[in-house]
Amino acid sequence: MEPDRRPHVVIVGAGFAGLEAAKILGRRDDVRVTVVDRRNHHLFQPLVYQVATAALDASDVAAPIRGILRWARNTAVVLAEVSSIDRAARTLHFADGGSVAYDYLIVAAGAQDNYFGHDWAEYAPGMKSIEDALEVRRRVLFAFEEAERETDEARRLAWMTFVVIGGGPTGVELAGSLSEMAHRALPRDFRNIDTTSARIVLVEGLDRLLPTYSEHLSARAKQVLENLQIQVRLGTRVTAIDEAGVLLGNERIEARTVLWGAGVSPSPLGRMLGAPVNRSGQVEVTEDLTLPGDSRVTVVGDMAAVIQDGHPVPGLAPAAMQMGRAAARNVVRRVQGKAAEPFRYFDKGSFAVIGRGAAVGSIFSKFDVSGLLAWFLWATIHLLYLVSFRSRITVLFTWLYSYLTWGRIARLITFSPWLRRMEREEPSRALPRAAASTSPATPSPSVPARATPEH
């Protein structure tokens, strides 16, 4: 066969930015495209917290990359993790020993949880992946199960206490959803505990919530959260986290479930490029999103430090999508021998949902909205941005069902610490693998032996 001499465009990451670039380039006949990602699915990150709180199933917010791009005959998908980037040789090396050469490279590897130098990931999981969301869901649901069996009041209170760290959109949305779960979805399901007595604490180091929003919307969000019986702790720093609780300054809160939403940092792939990075690790790109002195490499999304009108472009899905589209168009222009165009972000606004019929947001960063109107706009926008038609239909009907019944459809504990412990300590008593998804009967609260989750 004749070798394919079309320019080869490699896209690292199939998040919002990478997928938008792939969609544009996948329609071209004058390039061939390879999408590299360490997972086989695209994740709709803004709704991951709903998977974590059992409102949606994982498949509702994720879709296989190959399925999304199956129409693009010039596009191949590679499941691999990039371990290094050799710009001189124009080659990406994979962790498993493979490699791929490129003519043009678009790096869109996104971001990861930032624990600010602390080793807290084991005790306070974030929500940057489906695995993270399912682990959060497991811990939340398991906490109520353990509280149902606990006879000691102090330990029961610790199981019923949930600490959410971070007062940005992720923390606010997660805390609000936890409150609705405890107060509306679960009360009739338990016999020995009152789930409405669950204590939810939202911790923010700054003096207000949602710092990227106006002060009016921040105050409104705080009021709504407090109406949901959430304790909002502003100007409070977390100094320690362990498997039994958190330390806020000199105050300790006993909590068996601690969740992280305090910040993210760019993918470490940015530093592999050998280009200038800012203090947070974002790559400092030119006005057309390429590396200084190397127009064949483009960095987009959360990894790119883009300053516009004296302010950084926010790390939001709409901004990443616009960067991805701009990067793809500029690759096409370069292939055609034309000059690249500078990137210009158009801010359509942003929203944060707090609870049922309650949200805050801004339109074009000029008009503040809150309450039911903001919630309706948030729901409509998120439905439209979901990657597949099936997901839109499924999420729409799931939301309608939840709105009418307060139900949570995905309340499955898919990993059993009890089963794992028994398999390790007493293999002969372990359940067969095929039956591992079937939970044993819940013993009465008087049974002293109890599983302890492995954090």
Span from first to last CA?
A: 53 Å
CATH topology term of the domain at 8-38 and 80-114 and 265-335: FAD/NAD(P)-binding domain
Q: Could you state the CATH homologous superfamily of the domain at 8-38 and 80-114 and 265-335?
A: FAD/NAD(P)-binding domain
Give the C-alpha Rg.
23 Å
Task: Describe the secondary-structure layout.
Blueprint (H helix, E strand, L loop, with lengths): L7 E5 L3 H10 L6 E6 L3 E3 L4 H5 L9 E3 H4 L6 E5 L2 E5 L4 E4 L4 E3 L2 E4 L3 E3 L16 H20 L3 H7 L1 E5 L3 H17 L13 E5 L11 H13 L2 E4 L4 E5 L2 E4 L2 E4 L2 E4 L3 E3 L2 H4 L10 E2 L5 E2 L2 E6 L4 E2 L1 E2 L2 E2 L4 H19 L13 E7 L2 E6 L3 E4 L1 H14 L3 H17 L11 H9 L30
Parallel strand pairs: 1-2, 1-9, 2-5, 9-21, 11-12, 11-17, 12-13, 19-22
Antiparallel strand pairs: 3-4, 6-7, 7-8, 10-18, 14-15, 15-16, 20-21, 23-24, 25-26, 26-27
Helix pairs in contact: 1-9, 4-5
Describe the structure concisely for a colleague.
With 455 residues, this protein is of the alpha/beta class. It contains twelve helices and 27 strands. Helix 1 runs parallel beside helix 9 and helix 4 runs antiparallel to helix 5.
